[in-house]
Amino acid sequence: MRRQALKSIFAFSAAGLLAGCGFRLRGQSSLPFASAHVEAAEGSALARRLRDQLDREGRLAAPDAAEILIRLGGEARRKTILSLSGAGKVREYRLEQSVTLSVVDARGVERMPPALLQRSRDFAYSDTQQLAKEAEEAMLWREMEEETLRQILRRLSFLSAR
Could you tell me the mean pLDDT of each successive run of 10 residues in the chain, 162 residues long? Predict the structure, then answer.
């Protein structure tokens, strides 16, 4: 009985300490604008995902009605050989993704100067597991795109009101 009481006291004390330290989940950051339009190259997957996110939040607008214009340019993906085996077969690849982000307001005033956002991932490759490695590569591209989208949203959340 005494042991059970000590366990309960310890559990409540630990819960109280965690609650008192100010810990909370990060959650979504608030965007300091009411409407935005995304300008990007035709077929840009990152632009499509950003538009979807802004649309879910009710902030996507036509170019003439938008408070800010988000420009995504120079979007590129590269796959390079990182290392070869002794037999000359590929052992590792490096995946690289880059995009340039800039923001202007409705009057054409630059709110965020062009910034290059880059991501890279290295992964091992094997001819004997070709299908699995292709799936891994596709997953890595999606993860890099998701990270870039989160970084764009974080940067947009720090735009100053002018």
Answer: 72 64 59 91 92 92 93 94 90 96 92 95 91 94 95 90 54
